[in-house]
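Q: Got a minute? One more chain.
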Amino acid sequence: MVSYKIKRFLVERKRRLKPSERLATRIGYMGAGFLIAAQWTLEPMLYILGFICVMIQTGSRKQWNLVALNLNGLFAWIKHLITL
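A: Always. Here it is, folded:
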C-alpha cells in the first residue's frame, strides 16, 4: 500500500509547469533553432547562443547530464571562436 502511494507521488501525471519552466522551455526551443541555423552557416556565435539557451532549459529541468554535454560543446565552440 505504501509503495503504491510513493509511486503515485513520483509519477504525478497532472503536474502543471511553473511560469519559469515554461519560459525555460521556450528559450530551449529558441536555442535548438540557433543550433539548426548554425549547422547551415557554421557561425560559431550561433552555436554559442544555442548551447547557452539549451543549457537554460536543461538546467531548469535538472537534467545535469545534458547540462554537462552542452557545457562541453559550449567550451569547444568558444575555443574555436577564440582561435579563429
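A: The longest helix spans residues 19-41.
Q: Perfect, thanks.
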